[in-house]
């Protein structure tokens, strides 16, 4: 039986809708009264695990799931050993550098050397500033990252931006984009090569469905 790791949060609804188009129904995860973290499709051909988005590539890499759906931002931060199969097109956002509106900085390169940048995307932020040859201290924060510049803890943040509303409401502005992110279909490399449980057929169906709405 195929096992698919699905992400809790903003990507879940679209992920379930995509799989429904291929004959797999995991809509029980959308029922707020349901507390199950593992359910089987009514056809009995596949099961799904509901996990934190950051854990999706872990379950796939270690073989507990054959397929997974996760944001590109997570893949860039985690750099797991998984097969990247399809850009699914939904869940669009971007990883950006942001500062206070009153800040004098309008480009990442203008930030002070050895200044502080708060982010939960520690790897991505460190890589970005390393490529700029700008030494900064990355301060790991995993909630309310916007408070970094507001409280004076950091000169800037590196965080995901979708509409920009949260930044605006907290007096912050984007000054640079690291990369764009969308949901991606990933697979355990060996399972994909061996076509475990008819994996190739499902992936082909999902690819067709994505191309139909592109």
Oligomer: single chain
Uncertain runs: none
Q: How far apart are the termini?
A: 30 Å
Helix-strand sequence:
EHEEHEHEEEHEHEHEEHH
What gyration radius follows from the Cα positions, in whole Å?
Answer: 19 Å
Judging from the principal axes of the Cα atoms, what is the shape? elongated
Strand count, sense and barrel status of the largest sheet are: 6 strands, mixed
pLDDT averaged over residues: 95
The beta-strand count equals: 11
Give the helix tally. 8
- Share of helical residues: 25-40%
Strand-residue proportion: 25-35%
List the keywords.
214 residues; alpha/beta; 6-stranded mixed sheet; 5-stranded mixed sheet; 8 helices; 11 strands; 29% helix
What features would you describe in this structure?
This protein has 214 residues and is an alpha/beta fold. Helices cover 29% and strands 29% of the residues. The chain has eight helices and eleven strands. The protein has a six-stranded mixed β-sheet with strand order 2-3-1-4-11-5. A five-stranded mixed β-sheet has the order 8-7-9-6-10. The relative contact order is 0.20.
């Amino acid at each position: 039986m195929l096992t698919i790791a699905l992400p809790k949060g903003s990507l879940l609804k679209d992920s379930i809708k995509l799989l429904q188009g291929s004959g797999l129904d995991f809509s029980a995860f959308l029922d707020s009264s349901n507390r199950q973290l593992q359910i089987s499709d009514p056809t009995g051909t596949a099961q799904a695990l509901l996990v934190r988005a950051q854990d999706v590539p872990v379950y796939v890499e270690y073989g507990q799931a054959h397929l997974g759906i996760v944001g590109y931002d997570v893949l860039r931060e985690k750099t797991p050993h998984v097969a990247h199969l399809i850009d699914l097109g939904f869940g669009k956002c971007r990883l950006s550098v942001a500062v206070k509106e009153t800040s004098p900085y309008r480009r990442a390169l203008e930030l002070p050397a050895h200044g502080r940048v708060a982010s939960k995307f520690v790897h991505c932020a460190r890589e970005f500033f390393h490529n700029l040859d700008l030494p900064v201290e990355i301060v790991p924060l995993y909630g309310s990252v916007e408070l970094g510049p507001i409280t004076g803890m950091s000169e800037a943040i590196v965080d995901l931006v979708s509409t920009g509303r949260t930044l605006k409401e907290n007096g912050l502005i984007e000054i640079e984009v690291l990369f764009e992110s969308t949901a991606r279909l990933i697979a355990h490399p060996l399972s994909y090569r061996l076509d475990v449980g008819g994996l190739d057929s499902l992936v082909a169906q999902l690819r067709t469905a994505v191309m139909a709405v592109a």
